[in-house]
Amino acid sequence: GKDGYVCTEAGFGSDMGGEKFFNIKSYYSGLKADCAVVVCTVRALKLHSGEAPKVVAGQALAKEYTTENPELVRKGCANLVAHIENITKHGVNVVVAINRFATDADSEHEVIKEVAKANGAFDCVVAEHHAKGGAGAKSLGKAVMAACQAGTSDFKLLYDAKAEPIKGKISKIVTEVYGGNEVKYSPKAEEMIAKYEKDPAIRSLPICMSKTQYSLSDDPAKLGAPKGFA
Fold it and tell me: Where does the source fall among the domains of life (predicted)?
């Protein structure tokens, strides 16, 4: 009903699924999100610190991922902050959900909560639905409801799809969402963009870009919150 809540999965990351949800799906549907949930784990943030061993599929996790180390988590929170900022620059309230693992320490969760709230998150809660089912998601559900009911979200698009040129739209995604400082085009890309700019129907479309999901940049090896790349 009109007083209920509709939840949907935007896709992987604020830089990928989130950006497309806001600037393509919301653009065409007219639907505006009241809240976005950013999911994180202690283990992922330790990886994004750049100081933990690489995770290799099929191999046991290094001890850094399963032993208490709040400072390693804090260093990795640069990645979380970037995702929070990507959501809030669209004017949407952010709730951070920490998916708890059995090896997590409360001190590590406290660091995440501290950093998230200090950098614009509406709330940050621990989610335990994997272990406890629906009961483990009550705190998350209540936080999302509170964020929606707060009435403080003011959705805005990243760019004006109809008014801005293709390169302008691409540049905004790269510099304001990914963290880069410029865009370099291959000769073939330059040729195609020049062609599309001459067609008003194509020129006015929002941009749908693909890149690695392992980094905010286009390089999967760049962890954390890389800046200044091309």
Answer: Eukaryota
Sign of the torsion angle spanned by Cα atoms 83, 87, 88, 94 = negative
Full set of structural domains in the chain with CATH: 33-149 (3.40.50.300), 159-230 (3.10.410.10)
Amino acid at position 176, single letter:
E
Record the tokens describing residue 98, joined without a space.
Answer: 């920490």
| Torsion, CA 163, CA 168, CA 174, CA 176, rounded to 10 | -60
Q: Divide the 230 residues of the chain into consecutive groups of 10 and give the mean pLDDT of each group.
A: 85 94 96 96 97 94 96 98 98 98 98 98 97 96 96 95 98 97 96 97 96 95 94
168 touches 159 (CB < 8 A): yes
For the range 214-222, what are the long-range contacts, defined as Cβ-Cβ under 8 Å and sequence gap of 24 or more? 216/13, 216/15, 216/79, 216/82, 216/177, 216/178, 216/179, 217/178, 217/179, 217/180, 218/178
Going by C-beta distance under 8 Å and a sequence separation of 6 or more, which residues neighbour residue 64?
A: 46, 51, 52, 53, 72
Reported residue count of the chain is 230
